[in-house]
């Protein structure tokens, strides 16, 4: 028993990752971990295959992981010094923890030298890649704002129009409930789904500065009056029966919240644009038949926020492990410059219903069956004055966990808005 | 699940065993000891060490004295998680024990149909907890589950979305899985009770109920203690089933200590406080196991069969 145990411990102790076993004679190899699940996984895999074909001297070995498993796996691997050369991620607060631990490369000067790489991408995508003024990740893949989806058939049934303000939303709630349709679908057990409501309401009521103050760690930043107003509005909506029965036990991972919308059990759903692909795949005639409506979150009466603002994922992010060998780092940089978001990859993202974060990518979907939706997403992403990152991604994992916990309790009506503010003020800056 | 020591047989041990005890026997324990030290004691010491540090799982580990302990002990989440853990323990014990005893007594009969039923009852124990949780979650879904599908209003409750209901559902699912296991223990216990005791009682004119309360139950004393220890200590570590079923929700209604530990350590990146909770879990578990041993008298290996 002693021998394998010792071997396992020795393997843990080494700082060299599995990727650093680069052959001295043959071509060097970089490693790359990314998320599984089709159709996105295929796009990622094919991008790597194309790069390897073009660069037989320095190839990349890709390994796909399932979303939740990946989050734990990558954290453990980085902590143990076993990170892959290229680290796929969401940027923001998690990236900040990598930076603070000195685990990822500073790419600022590389982007200065390769301005062309930077200039072809959406400028908004760099926010979550930038920590204290330095760029630590290459934005990639697609932009995913959160939008208000609605079921056109449900609105026809009660003879109503989609909401154009918060007041409209509150008026629609009793009308839908009377018709036996839930006003909003919500996968509340996932918690970040509830959070999207707070993000939009706070932005529409108080503007972007309110959360910015929290993000900057200003003392008692949650005590802004707009926060209390926002929290009260959320609880008003819960109390009015705005969300589907049993929302707090529905998970977003199972796509049950999307199913509620396309089966007509719920009329509206606030969700990320990544759900479009799932709804067109599983919803039968719902998307192809034109029954899915979508719009940006409506303004709140008297609110200060710009109604063009949006939140969501401004992109996905690739970082380079600082523990990788110089050869591996070179391969990764070459991949960033020549292998990420090529025209072919962009085209494949469009086929999945996603908008690549490349300027002028709208040309790629002329004539596509999803052109309307893609135009809509492109419009939101390029017109937004501020494209904020989701709170739980922007904050550190520690603060995000407290935030999500308190949001769940807020929707459960087990804490008051004032208690929420007090609980959250206590962890500002952590 | 752990293996059980067979109940001690009455009478003195054979002389051969006694001689061997001084020689080869201790060495037979070495492999088990090595594994226990390697995978039990050393990680435990590691956790104890981590509880006096602050570490986010990524960077350097910094010694921070009692900071983690202070943070954990001052957090109102801890007494809440302890309370929920205790409730889960008490409720699942109170639900499982009577049910397991009754089923165990029933299955102890030698009739053929009971043997068939025993196999059927055993099935839930063969399933993985995660699979059970996913299946129940789908069945209990208020919009697409069993109740909604069959249009039975009674079944289309918000099972996992209301604190009390969610808690009860967790207890039910846990019991559904573990009652077969404990029934098996009781079945074995009942079968060891000598027939002669029942025959004597029958001659005295005792009925079925009287026999159960005056013979079966007292004779099962040590079986009850064994099964209760497993239930109580086991319920401290319930994690996967609750994690998949409710993720500790709604709010924190079903957030037991083990779940609290996971959330702090792996979701909030606070390895120090999470390790402190782990130490608390170990201490509570040890205390409970000791307490239950005391309840069972000084020598839990003893049998009551001598009195028969």
From TrEMBL, chain B:
Protein biosynthesis among keywords: no
Transmembrane segments: 27-50, 81-108, 115-136, 164-186, 230-250, 270-292
Main location: membrane
Native source organism of the sequence: Planotetraspora mira
Endpoints of the signal sequence: none
Pfam short name (any one): BPD_transp_1
Official protein name in the record: ABC transporter
Keywords from the UniProt entry: Cell membrane, Membrane, Transmembrane, Transmembrane helix, Transport
Database matches in PROSITE patterns: ABC_TM1
Family: Belongs to the binding-protein-dependent transport system permease family.
Entries under CDD domains matching the protein: TM_PBP2
Annotated GO biological process: transmembrane transport
Membrane topology designation: Multi-pass membrane protein
GO cellular component, one term: plasma membrane
Family annotation (PANTHER family): ABC TRANSPORTER PERMEASE PROTEIN (PTHR30193), INNER MEMBRANE ABC TRANSPORTER PERMEASE PROTEIN YCJO (PTHR30193:SF37)
Domain of life, per lineage: Bacteria
């Amino acid at each position: 028993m002693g021998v394998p145990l010792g071997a396992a411990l020795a393997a843990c102790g080494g700082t060299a990752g599995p990727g650093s076993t680069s052959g001295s004679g043959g071509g060097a190899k970089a490693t790359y971990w990314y998320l599984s699940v089709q159709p996105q996984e295929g796009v990622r895999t094919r991008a790597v295959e194309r790069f390897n074909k073009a660069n037989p001297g320095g190839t990349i070995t890709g390994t796909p992981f399932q979303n939740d498993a990946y989050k734990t796996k990558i954290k453990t691997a980085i902590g143990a010094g076993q990170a892959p050369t290229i680290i796929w991620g969401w940027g923001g607060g998690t990236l900040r923890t990598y930076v603070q631990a000195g685990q990822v490369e500073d790419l600022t000067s590389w982007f200065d030298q390769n301005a062309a790489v930077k200039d072809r991408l959406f400028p908004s995508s760099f926010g979550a890649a930038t920590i204290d003024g330095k760029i630590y990740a290459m934005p990639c893949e697609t932009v995913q704002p959160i939008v208000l989806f609605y079921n056109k058939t449900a609105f026809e049934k009660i003879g109503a129009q989609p909401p154009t303000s918060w007041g409209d939303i509150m008026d629609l709630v009793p009308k839908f409930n009377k018709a036996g349709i839930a006003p909003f679908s919500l996968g509340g057990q996932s918690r970040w789904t509830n959070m999207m409501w707070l993000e939009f309401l706070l932005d529409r009521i108080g503007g972007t500065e309110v959360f910015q103050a929290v993000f900057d760690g200003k003392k008692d930043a949650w005590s802004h009056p707009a926060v209390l107003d926002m929290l009260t509005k959320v609880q008003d909506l819960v109390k009015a029966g705005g969300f589907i029965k049993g929302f707090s036990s529905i998970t977003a991972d199972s796509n049950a919240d999307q199913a509620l919308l396309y089966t007509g059990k719920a009329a509206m759903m606030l969700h990320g644009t990544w759900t479009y692909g799932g709804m067109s795949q599983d919803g039968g005639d719902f998307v192809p038949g034109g029954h899915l409506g979508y719009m940006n979150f409506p303004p709140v009466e008297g609110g200060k926020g710009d109604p063009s603002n949006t939140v969501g994922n401004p992109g996905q992010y690739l970082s380079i492990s600082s523990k990788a060998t110089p050869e591996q780092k070179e391969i990764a940089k070459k991949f960033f410059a020549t292998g990420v978001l090529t025209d072919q990859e962009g085209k494949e993202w469009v086929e999945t219903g996603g908008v690549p974060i490349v300027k002028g990518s709208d040309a790629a979907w002329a004539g596509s069956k999803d052109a309307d939706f893609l135009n809509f997403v492109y419009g939101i992403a390029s017109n937004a004055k501020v494209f904020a990152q989701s709170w739980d991604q922007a904050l550190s994992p520690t603060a995000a966990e407290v935030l999500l916990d308190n949001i769940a309790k807020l929707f459960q009506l087990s804490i008051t808005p004032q208690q929420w503010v007090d609980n959250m003020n206590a962890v500002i800056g952590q | 699940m752990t293996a059980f020591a067979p109940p001690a047989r009455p009478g003195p041990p054979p002389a051969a065993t006694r001689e061997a005890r001084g020689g080869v026997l201790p060495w037979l324990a070495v492999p088990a000891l090595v594994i226990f030290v390697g995978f039990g004691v050393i990680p435990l010491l590691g956790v104890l060490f981590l509880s006096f540090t602050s570490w986010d799982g990524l960077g350097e580990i910094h010694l921070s004295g009692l900071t983690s302990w202070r943070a954990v002990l001052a957090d109102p989440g801890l007494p809440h998680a302890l309370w929920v853990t205790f409730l889960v323990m008490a409720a699942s014990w109170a639900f499982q024990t009577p049910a397991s005893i009754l089923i165990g007594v029933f299955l102890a009969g030698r009739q053929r149909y009971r043997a068939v039923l025993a196999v059927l009852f055993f099935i839930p124990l063969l399933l993985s907890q995660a699979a059970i949780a996913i299946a129940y979650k789908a069945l209990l879904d208020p919009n697409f589950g069993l109740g909604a599908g069959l249009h039975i209003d009674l079944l289309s409750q918000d099972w996992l979305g209301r604190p009390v209901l969610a808690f009860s559902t967790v207890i039910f699912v846990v019991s559904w899985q573990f009652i077969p296991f404990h029934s098996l223990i009781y079945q074995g216990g009942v079968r060891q009770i000598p027939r002669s005791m029942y025959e004597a009682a029958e001659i005295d004119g005792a009925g079925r109920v009287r026999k159960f309360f005056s013979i079966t139950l007292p004779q099962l004393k040590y079986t009850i203690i064994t099964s209760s220890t497993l239930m109580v200590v086991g319920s401290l570590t319930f994690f996967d089933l609750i994690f998949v079923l409710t993720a500790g929700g709604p709010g924190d209604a079903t957030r037991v200590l083990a779940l609290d530990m996971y959330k702090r350590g792996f979701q909030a990146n606070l390895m120090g406080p999470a390790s402190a909770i782990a130490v608390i879990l170990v201490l509570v578990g040890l205390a409970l196991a000791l307490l239950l041993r005391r309840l069972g008298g000084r020598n839990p290996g003893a049998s009551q069969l001598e009195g028969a």
